[in-house]
Design a protein that fits this description.
Layout lengths: L9 H4 L2 E3 L4 E6 L4 E2 L2 E2 L1 H16 L6 E9 L6 E12 L4 E9 L14 E11 L24 H5 L6 E3 L9 H7 L6 E6 L7 E8 L10 H5 L26 E2 L2 E8 L11 E6 L3 E2 L2 E9 L5 E10 L1 E2 L1 H4 L10
Length: 326
C-alpha cells in the first residue's frame, strides 16, 4: 500500500503542536472529510492525541474513556485545542477539552471571544499497560460470531469469506458518495462475502496509507462506518423505497462516547475488526454501536454514537465564517 493524493497518513493528519502549557494547534485535513465537514472520529482522534501529549508527562498517556459533543460542524483548516484539568489523580486524570475555530491567532491567547467552539469533550486518561486489579472471564462472545479470517489470504484478496469493497452500497449513487466521503478513502474495507442482516455490518479495516493503527486512531476507527442506512439503498431497477437510489444522505454525529478496554501494541496493529449495528432509525435519528477487536479477537473498545440522518446538501451549505488567521 502506498500513499496517493487521496490518502494522507493518520499520523500526519492528526498531528498536534503545543503552543502553550495546555494549548495545542492542529490542522483538519480535507482528505478526512465527509463532504465539506471533517469526519467526527478524525476530529476526536486529534483531540485524544493532544490529551495524550498533555497527560503523558504525568504518566497518563492512554485514553480509557471519552465523551465528545459536536455542538457545530467543524471546518477544514486550523484549530486550537485547549485542555483544562478537572481531576489530576495518582492513577487517573480527567480533562475538559475545547476545540476552537475562527478568529484564531498565532500568539496567546490563540482564540477570541468570537471564536467558535464546535467540539467539547471530557477525556479520562491513565496508563493502561500498568493497570493492575481484579480480572474475571465473563464468557462474552459476539453473536452471531464473525466469519473466520486468514490474514495472508486477506492481503492477497484470496480469502473467500471476505471481500474488499467500498463501505457503500452498490446503488447508482455509490460513485457520488465515494467522492462525497473522502474520509472513507483512508481505509481499506473487507466485508463478509455473505452479508448479514441489514442494520449490522462486520468489517476488517486497515489504513490505505500502509501505516498501523495506534491507540489514538481508535476514535477514528469507531467512526469509520456510520453508513448503516446504505444497506437499504435500492438499485435503479427496484422500487424506489424507502428512498430513491440517487438520494444522498449525511450522518452527522451529535455525540460520541468511547470506552477503551486495552492498548494496542507499541508498534501498532495492521488490522482491526469492527462490528457496527443500530437498534433504531426513526425520524431522522439513529443510534450506532461499535465493537472493535484486534487481530487476536480481543476486545479493544466499545463506542456509542448518536447521529442524525439529513440530506447531503445540508453538509455543503455555505455559512458565514469567522476568518482564520493561522
Amino acid at each position: 500500500m502506498a500513499r496517493t493524493p487521496e490518502t494522507v497518513p493518520f499520523s500526519t493528519a492528526s498531528q498536534v503542536t503545543p503552543v502553550g502549557r495546555n494549548v495545542y494547534r492542529a490542522f483538519l485535513e480535507p482528505t478526512y472529510c465527509v463532504g465539506a465537514v471533517p469526519n467526527g472520529g478524525y476530529v476526536a482522534s486529534t483531540i485524544v492525541r493532544a490529551v495524550s501529549d498533555y497527560l503523558g508527562p504525568r504518566g497518563h498517556p492512554d485514553t480509557v474513556a471519552a465523551h465528545f459533543e459536536f455542538i457545530d460542524r467543524t471546518d477544514v483548516g486550523p484549530v486550537i485545542i485547549e485542555v483544562t484539568d478537572i481531576k489530576s489523580g495518582r492513577s487517573i486524570s480527567v480533562v475538559h477539552v475545547t476545540l476552537y475555530q475562527g478568529s484564531l491567532s498565532p500568539e496567546a491567547p490563540f482564540f477570541a471571544s468570537s471564536s467558535r467552539k464546535p467540539v467539547l469533550a471530557y477525556v479520562t486518561n491513565m496508563a493502561i499497560r500498568l493497570e493492575q486489579g481484579l480480572s474475571l472471564s465473563t464468557g462474552w462472545e459476539m453473536q452471531p460470531p464473525a466469519a473466520p479470517v486468514d490474514f495472508d489470504k486477506l492481503r492477497a484478496g484470496k480469502d473467500p469469506r471476505w471481500t474488499q469493497r467500498s463501505r457503500l452500497a452498490t446503488g447508482s449513487s455509490s460513485g457520488a458518495m465515494r467522492d462525497f466521503s473522502r474520509a472513507s478513502l483512508q481505509f481499506q474495507y473487507y466485508f463478509p462475502s455473505e452479508p448479514g442482516r441489514r442494520g449490522e455490518e462486520d468489517v476488517w479495516l486497515r489504513f490505505a496509507s500502509g501505516e498501523n493503527f495506534t491507540d489514538t486512531a481508535i476514535p477514528l476507527v469507531a467512526d469509520a462506518l456510520p453508513y448503516i442506512i446504505e444497506a437499504w439503498r435500492p438499485h435503479e431497477d427496484e422500487k424506489q423505497t424507502p428512498f430513491r437510489t440517487a438520494e444522498m444522505w449525511w450522518y452527522p454525529t451529535l455525540s460520541f462516547s468511547l470506552d477503551v478496554k486495552k492498548a494496542l501494541p507499541g508498534e501498532g496493529s495492521e488490522w482491526l475488526f469492527m462490528r457496527c449495528f443500530t437498534r433504531s432509525i426513526k425520524n431522522g435519528r439513529l443510534d450506532l454501536q461499535s465493537i472493535i477487536l484486534d487481530q487476536h479477537g480481543e476486545l479493544v473498545a466499545l463506542a456509542h454514537h448518536v447521529n442524525l440522518v439529513v440530506p447531503a446538501s445540508r453538509n455543503l451549505q455555505k455559512r458565514k465564517t469567522i476568518g482564520n488567521k493561522l
